[in-house]
Amino acid sequence: MKPHLRLLALALASTLAFTAGGFAADKPNFVIIFIDDMGYADIGPFGATKQKTPRLDRMASEGMRLTSFYAAPVCSVSRAQLLTGCYGARISVPGVFGPASTKGLNPTEITMAERLKELGYATACIGKWHVGDQPQFLPTRQGFDHYLGIPYSNDMQRKSTATGERVVPLIRDEKVAELLDDEAQSRIVQIYTDEAISFIRENKDKPFLLYLPHTAVHVPIHPGKDFAGKSSNGRFGDWVEEVDRSTGRSLDTLNELKLAENTLVIFTSDNGPWLVKGADAGSAAPLRGGKGSTWEGGMREPTIAWWPGKTDPLTPRHRPTPDPFPARRGEKQIPSSQTPSLPVPDPANDATRKKQIPVRQPLSARRDLRGRVQCRWRWMQREQSRVRRVVHRVRGEASPRAAGA
């Protein structure tokens, strides 16, 4: 299984234990703020200087910085892994889903929303979904009571049949609420934040899961009008500052309703910065690489955990992204009675899906990458030898191999 969100795993495990023991009142709330294409050095607690993030700075000072927190190189895979706790390849999510794709996260997969809903949680997804935009793949079919957001990346625009403008849909539950053109996208952080705060207020008397995957800071960059031109890092920095304000509003609401000490808030990103976009991309400094690569800059994310009274203030932690479903029975984290008795069908053993990408068993990213690098290196050596032989033939010289070199 994919390691992802250890703090969430521990909290979920404790929730299951409390429920099994009859202590339902101790169920914690969960808020997961998932940014799009944010680099390791794009917020103050991780080294940003051109854009100011005072609310995230405070969140880190009151909570915990996770300095070795890894995701996947691209967004659909990262989101599927977060939701299910499985490697993307294991659940047939190998890349990025486009609009109107016939593929998505299999509805029979068990998500964290479904697990928590069984325990009486209110659940909502507000933001970018991007693991399938057809009805059978939407959040409302994956354990979420409510959904509001753009179902894929904000650059996946299509022409409106009514106006001819390039737009993306804003979906509420399973219906299109609005078509957003470029100008309207500047309202998206405000829309998400207002909806998130309303959800928290409506469910203050019951346990809840709020999954808030922002469209920001994916290109095209559209900061709100109150933030445009305010940072020292162009419109990208402006949008980061708007996300900072949005996060602060959510934390303020939790404090106002006296929910903070019973709520775990995770702030992180799906993958590294999209470096080819130049000034519209973030920074992964001092790491190498960005979105789409398996270098540190493509997968290591700026992450903060905030849970007053539970997280250690000012303490950096060096750990990989852990699994929200450590359901292997021997680990004693989720009782065996809570482990799904019927696993999702394995596409590798499904004869009706002959063209499916072969499913690989879980393998450490380091070991997998090392194997690919070694294969690439051997190929380069063979090609270099072939080129040298051709050059020697053209020059009429004996090849090193023929000469016994």
The percent range for strand residues is 15-25%
Helix run count = 8
Biggest beta sheet summary: 11 strands, mixed
Overall pLDDT, averaged?
A: 83
Distance between the termini: 49 Å
Written as H for each helix and E for each strand, in order along the chain, the element string is HEHEHHEEEEEHEHEHEEH
Keywords for this structure?
405 residues; alpha/beta
Structure description:
It is a single chain. This protein has helices at 6-20, 54-62, 75-84, 112-117, 188-202, 234-256, 296-299, 365-395, and strands at 29-35, 64-70, 122-126, 146-149, 158-159, 166-172, 175-180, 208-213, 263-269, 300-306, 315-317. The chain is an alpha/beta fold. Strands 1, 2, 3, 4, 5, 6, 7, 8, 9, 10 and 11 form an eleven-stranded mixed sheet that branches. Helix 2 packs across helix 6. The longest helix has 31 residues, at 365-395.
Could you outline the blueprint of secondary structure elements for this entry?
Layout: H1 6-20, E1 29-35, H2 54-62, E2 64-70, H3 75-84, H4 112-117, E3 122-126, E4 146-149, E5 158-159, E6 166-172, E7 175-180, H5 188-202, E8 208-213, H6 234-256, E9 263-269, H7 296-299, E10 300-306, E11 315-317, H8 365-395
Parallel strand pairs: 1-8, 1-9, 2-11, 3-4, 3-8
Antiparallel strand pairs: 2-10, 4-6, 5-6, 6-7, 9-10
